[in-house]
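Before relying on records like the one below, remember that each one covers exactly one chain. Contacts with other chains, cofactors or solvent are not represented anywhere in the record.
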Amino acid sequence: MSHRAHIVPGLLAAVATIIVSIPLTGLFRDAAWAFPAAVGVLVIAGTGMILRATVGHTGVTILGQVVVACGYVLLTQLRDTTLVGVVPTPETAARLVEHVRDAQDTITRYAAPAPETPGITVALIIIILVVGLAVDMSAATASSPAIAGLPLLSLFLVSAANSGGELPWGWFLAGAALWLTMVAHQSDVDLREWTTSVPLMGHDDGQGVAERSLRWQAARVAAVCLAAAMLLPAVMPHLPTRYVLDGLGRGGGGSAGTTDGIRLSTELDLKRSLESPSEDPVLTYTTDAPTPEPLRIAVVEDFTDGFGRMESRARAPRTDFTPPDPVAGLPETIPQERRSLAVESNGVAAPQVAMPDKLVSAELDDIGWSVGSDGTARVQRAPGSYSATFAELDLEEEHFDTTPEETIDPAAERDEYLALDPGSAEEIRELADELAPEGGDDLADAQAIQEYLRGPDFTYSLDIPDPAGGPEDPILSFLETRTGYCQQFAATMTLLARARDIPSRVVVGFLPGDAIDDDEYLVRASDAHAWPELYFDSVGWVRFEPTKGTRSASLPGYSLSSEDGPVATDETTSATEETTTSTTTEAVPSDEDTAVPEGEEESPLRRWLGWILVGLLGVAALAILPVTAVLTRRRERAAADDDAALVEHEWRDLIDRLEDLGVEPPPGATPRDVGAWLGRRAHLQAEHRERLDRVVTTLERARYGRPGQELPDISTDVSAVVGEVRDQRMRGARVRAALLPRAGVDAWLGLPRRVRERLGRTRQSR
């Protein structure tokens, strides 16, 4: 019984799945999913052991595990939508779709470690259970542990590709060791079965010598492979995460000129402090602009629960793209100049690309690109170098008083640009009303907000304080502690401006960098920056700079009230260098803490769910014939008129199942001849020879004894003989017998005939 249950490979498969799933805890802030997922894997393993020991049929075992896994998810995660805990309802399907959408939204919006939402919990449990089922099916049910390495590797790659850094090598070593243990165990089982089929190998210590030799060779090969797997990655160049699986891991370093590069993350985490940012170079460029502006990467519009979430407006990149005129609709009274920028060494990873505002044209060497209505660009692949032309405006306060002939950006009137975070909306409105000057216009309100945030009460720091008993909302916490870095300053000004009905958004990108020559600049990863953009009907979207100190870009002249102090013009720049420098001397948010346009990239969770659905449909298709065979046998047993008919059915079932395994008794042979031939052909042990003899003796009594006599049930003996023969057959024969049972094939082939007979009886009864 224990041999048929395959307890050892089943336990190894369950433990390996649980161990390989543990690194997933590093991708999320909580791990509430871990315990129910581990219990579910153990439940699936136990179900497989019980079904293999009692039913002994591959198809029934797999189908039973699938049913139990579905019931476990319904009972533990969707119970409130089911009947009696496990019967799904239409509400169950709707809730599951809701969870999938929630998980997809979390994956695409957050960088690791992401929050564990209900959708993430359900999705991770389902994924881990599917992997556990695949590993158990391969290693235990099908006795093919080598195949079990594929689902284990896939689950491990989810953690490795999305962590944004290196995983501890111990997790890989533990998972690989368990997989090799499964392979070694199955090799021992196969060797023992082989030696019983060749009796001479079983004499003396021949089997022991063969087993020890095989184990020693396997151990040496395994040691060499594990050593190579651990050492080779140390000397190979690191591939960016997108080559394996795009997901949460969008941090990571890169240097200018590499195709890997860096990619700014998809979130502004307003609660997180920063570690020391990387000083690796990102790009070098030359420009003829006297005072370079920041280079934009993405736009953040939505602020909820302490996170800034990006919505990309860029279209799908194409090689023949021509950007719209960035100054269309602007009053002709605004002075403007055409400026050029040439990036000589680019280290920003696709689809992101650093571009100046008001982009007129770009040359990217036949690489597809596009620009969205928000002014951000995206590319099909990262260019090593590129050039761009952009419009530079010389805005003054009086330009904000003009009335344009047409709306400059109709999209600015969207509700998203005026939405507040519910957690801080009331306090933000009160503060905005306090800061607004009496009789002031929108520009005066914006100037007052910027002046407030740049005032002496606020401090720039990478370490976000978390005072005990303080507010949970990060914006309110920032306004209480008055300590933060560019993300907090930019997001707070954006929300305060929205409270004054000024459309606002946050732009993320890079500061102009350090000047290394007269017109050449070097941008480092530590130059990642965030700043607010506000929309005015008269001039469109314009930049403000509320971040304090030297960790900010040049301060636009229009952003300072002429009534309160000097305007930051070229003549006054030197006098205000302390607060308007564009160089980088303090730490800023690294690429792990700013936002990235996702565009039309497919989320990893969607790809995983698609593969899971395909896999489940494939399993269901493979189970049709095995399930049909089981149901057909049960129906024929139930239709037997007496014990003799039941014995005849069991004998036919024995012959059919042996023929499925490729063991076909001589045609026309008597039951006794078949029994003797099978005993020799299958090398049956004494126990199974006795079982076969009981089957033959009972069949002879049923055929030649007195009618109506009571006969013993031989179904257990038949299953035991078939199981022994199956264990001795090649793996291909076992799989073929499980997936293409003759009883299932005959049932489907005979379906038209049975339908005709049923219709004929129906017509006759009328």
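The first helix runs from residue 2 to 5.
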